[in-house]
Each structure stands twice: as C-alpha cells, then as structure tokens.
Specification:
Helix content is 75%, strand content 0%. By secondary structure, it is mostly helical.
C-alpha cells in the first residue's frame, strides 16, 4: 500500500508540473498585454515599462516561469493585477463558497442517484425501471444552466419559495445544488443500475438468497458493496468537478465561487489569478483521483497494491 501511494504521489507531482508548464505557455501566446489591459490606454510608455518591471514581466519567459514555479511551491501566486488581492486569499475565499455548493450538490446527487439506480436494478424490466431511467437520461441530457433557469422561474419567481441569487445562508444554495447535482445524479443512477445488475447475477447472491437471507440485507450488504467500484470511480470524478466550481451555475445564481473567479480572471487576462485558479483545479482533480484509487483497496479486498500495481 505504501509503495502504491508513493508512486501515485510522484505521478501527481509530475502531472502538476506538466500542467503548470502548459498553462504558462498557453497564457503567453494569448493575444493582449495584461499591463495595457490593466492601465487601459491612459498610460504612457514609461509608465507601462515601470509597471511591467514591478510585476516581473520584463524578464525572460524562462525566468518568469521559474519565478511562478517557486511561488507555487510556497503557495504564493502573487497578487491580482486588477484587484490587488493576494491570489491565495482569493482562492481560499472562493473555495469556501464553492465547497458549500459542492457539498450540498454532492449529497443530493449521490443519495438520489444511488437510490434510483438501486430501485431500477431491483425492478429491472418493470415500469419503475423505465420511468427512473427515462428521468436519469433527461437529467444527464438537460444543460445545467437551463435547469437553473427553470428552477429560478418556478420556485423563485412563480412560487416565491426560494431565493434565486446570493449566498447568504444555506437556503440560498438549495436551487443551485439541485441545478448542479441533477446531471450527476442521472449519471450515478445509470452506473449504479448497470453495476448492480452485474452483481445480482453472481452466484454468491443466489447462494445468499437460497440460505434465506433477507432481500434487503442481500441488496445492501452483498450486492451494493460489491458494486461500489465503478460507482466510486464516477462519484470521485464528479466530486472533483463540483469542487472546482461550475462556471455557468455560479454565474446564473451570482455565487462568487471558484468558477466565477476563473471566468473573471480569464476575461481580464489576470495572469497571477488565472495561474492560481488553474493550479487549484488541477490539484483538486489529481488529489480526488488519488483518493479514489486508494479507496478501492478498502472497498474490494481482491484488489492488491504493491509490486503488482500498475
């Protein structure tokens, strides 16, 4: 186990290094000078040169990348060109908002998705199965921003039950969580159904039933546990997506999370803020994937890590 985790951690560092390099290169080829955008057209050449020097943009590109890499190692991405806020502070502030939205969306998606998937698998071929799978397909297919707008119109404007913007309290996250989690709930329901159907056909399930074990215990203890590997893989990936923010959902509901921060930094070509946001997103994805891989050993004892691990 230790050897496997060490190997995955090393791979994680390589991935983060590669992403940092690619991000830096791409930002350099994007048209537009961030200094000119920041100063608009009111500054003369001398002022522009002075600001470029203060921001460290007058040195060679390799030196700029090394400065960025050195700062990233110490979690120091500098300050925003436009707001002058420390990038790390901005990331932490937006992360605290996004994690609230992600937690509620994740809980909604997992509970609803697993429950619907199990119900569909148990009632395979019946009308319940058809209805639940039709709803799950609709949930996966419908754009999140469209669901968000529909929810705002019905529950916010027509019924006046829930707020349609802001983030002052838990109630403000109900509609965004449903809008963000619906698509993931549909995906989880479909993979849960497929995985459960594969497990239910196994001999040990038939043996448990033949021994008189209660159906509920057979489903929960034997079938669901052994069907969790593909479910965990999907759930882990979707958790990473939620933690990195949903740009459209956060825009529609005016939630100042990571997604909105990324959009704003791209619009302004705010290099420090954009680089910090990209590295945060990359870090979340690789860590979530690492935790998903490690969790396999605890869910399925047949999986062995060590010299034979790939």
């Amino acid at each position: 186990m230790f050897q496997y985790i060490s190997k995955r951690l090393f791979q994680t560092l390589l991935v983060l290094f590669g992403i940092s390099l690619i991000t830096f290169i791409l930002l350099q080829v994007v048209p537009g000078d961030p200094v000119e955008l920041m100063l608009e057209k009111r500054a003369d050449a001398q002022t522009i040169a002075r600001v470029r020097h203060e921001l460290g943009l007058d040195v060679s590109l390799p030196q700029q990348y090394l400065n960025f890499l050195k700062g990233a190692i110490h979690l120091d991405f500098g300050k925003s060109y436009f707001t002058k806020e420390v990038v790390t502070t901005a990331l932490v502030r937006c992360f605290m908002v996004t994690v609230k939205l992600a937690s509620m969306s994740f809980l909604f998606a997992v509970v609803l998705g697993v429950a619907c998937g199990m119900a569909a698998a148990i009632n395979r071929g019946k009308w319940i199965d058809s209805v639940l799978m039709t709803i799950s397909i609709a949930g996966v297919s419908a754009p999140s921003f469209w669901i968000a707008i529909i929810l705002q119109i019905i529950f916010g404007l027509k019924l006046d039950l829930l707020p349609i913007s802001g983030f002052e309290g838990p109630v403000f996250f109900i509609l965004p969580s449903i809008a963000l989690g619906t698509r993931y709930a549909g995906s989880i329901a479909r993979i849960t159904r497929t995985s459960m159907l594969d497990v239910i056909k196994q001999d040990y399930i038939r043996t448990a039933r033949a021994k008189g074990v209660k159906e509920g215990l057979v489903i929960m203890k034997h079938a669901l546990k052994n069907a969790m590997i593909p479910i965990i893989t999907l759930v882990g990936t979707e958790l990473g997506n939620m933690l990195t923010g949903s740009m459209l959902i956060e825009r529609v509901f005016s939630i100042p999370g990571i997604g909105k921060l990324a959009v704003d930094s791209m619009s302004n070509r705010d290099l420090p803020l954009l680089e910090g946001t990209v590295m945060y997103i990359a870090f979340v994805f690789v860590i979530v994937n690492l935790l998903v891989d490690i969790s396999y050993a605890f869910i399925d004892p047949r999986i062995r890590y060590g010299k034979g691990a790939n």
